[in-house]
Amino acid sequence: MLISSRDPFECRETENLYRLAVNLNNNGHAVTLFLVQNGVMPARKSAANRKFAGLIRQGIHIEVDDFSAKERSIMEKELKKGINLASIENIINSLAKGTKTIWH
Amino acid sequence: MNEKTTLTFAIMDPPFESARSTTFFRLLNVAASRGYNINVFAYEGGVHLPFNKQKRHANGVHGTTLEEENHPLPKEWVNELINIAKQNNGHIEWVNCGLCADERGIDETVSGVRRGSPADFWKLASASDNSLVIGTR
Amino acid sequence: MRALQIIEAGYRGTLEEQDDTIIWLTHAMKGIDADISVLLCGNAVNYILVDQAPPMLQFGNWVQTQATDIEGDLVKLIDKDVEVYVVKEDLKSRGLINRKNIGGIKLIDRNQLPSLLEKYEQLWHW
User: Fold this and answer.
1) How far is A88 from chain B (nearest CA, A)?
2) CATH number of the domain bearing residue B73
3) How far from B70 is each of A18, A41, B79, C8, C116, CA to CA, in Å?
4) ipTM of the assembly?
5) Alpha carbon C93 to chain centroid distance?
């Protein structure tokens, strides 16, 4: 699991995290990208980030922290197709299962 | 590994300055409510989180009294989470990096927090099912 | 003296402080009649949206009772005649240009920033 906490419009390193997700996926790993804090900013349909859109096309599983979304007035209907709101419990589920998890 | 799930977290941020400390406490809350054993290694500014001299204040800009403002104090959250873990048959072992605490004058913490060293982090992480490092930026 | 507060880092410690500390600082300075304006850029442009609803935190017996209300704090600044500028391109890239906002703000193109900055004696980029 890759936890993306930074806004890609602000921090270019975030796009490197997206690239890592794709590369891990290409290596046969099941990858979940969990967006939290300002990391949720590209999740809106209207947000224009080509690298992020590419993740969805490549089938990376993406979850958006419901708490962070609410805080920033992001409604579920505004999310890009293929990504969903999720509870932060999913991070703990992932850790408890022993899934390697990186905070970015 | 243990029968009971054990997770280790490292946190580097002080309270009140980033969203990371809040998210970190939300994560601990989930794990503590499940009765997991939790280890925390507070590094650098993270040693401020359980600092016992944190104080509430009123807020003139908000127009609130001390009671109305009910200002969040992370030291109280540490206490609450230690209790939540206990009530669910889990445990929180909170280690404040001793040298980081000395540098910052963090000489008093809430009960249940001890001083430690990088060796503690290594040992705690080695004995855990998983770990999560929440680095500062 | 005129000063411009430039706020770029949004949602930084806001749940624990129960406000944005630079918006708070601007209120405090306005309270002593400071001639001060605000420029929102980066992810702080999200602050102008309506319906920001940070959930109340709860850890055991500790329950948050004072909600963080950034949009309300901004409205109060505007009511005090503080000019609030917002960088249009930062709104556009984040898909926020057509979202309902609090009103009373001044959208500004990035290439108009030099003219804006020239109006202030001091520039404080937090």
Assistant:
1) 7
2) 3.40.1260.10
3) 39, 30, 16, 27, 39
4) 0.97
5) 18
Contact B1, B124 (CB under 8 A): no
Q: How far apart, in whole angstroms, are the C-alpha atoms of residue C42 and residue C66? A: 26
Cα angle A94, A98, A103; round to 5? 55
CA dist., res. B7 & res. C115, Å (int): 53
Q: Which residue has the tokens 């590209």?
A: A42
The number of domains in chain A is: 1
- Does B72 contact C13 at a Cβ distance shorter than 8 Å? no
Q: In angstroms, rounded to a whole number, what is the distance separating the alpha carbons of residues C14 and C19?
A: 5
Q: Are the beta carbons of B129 and A36 separated by less than 8 Å?
A: no
* CATH number (domain holding residue C46): 3.40.1260.10
Which of A38, A92, A98 minimises the CB distance to B27?
A92
Full domain range(s) for residue C72: 2-125
Cα–Cα–Cα angle for B13, B16, B19, rounded to 5 degrees: 65
**Are B22 and C31 an interchain contact pair (Cβ–Cβ within 8 Å)?**
no
pLDDT digits (tens, 9 = 90+) for B61-116: 999 999 999 999 999 999 999 999 999 999 999 999 999 999 999 999 999 999 99
Percent of chain C whose pLDDT exceeds 90: 100
Please report, for the domain that includes residue A6, its CATH number: 3.40.1260.10
| Any domain includes B93 | no
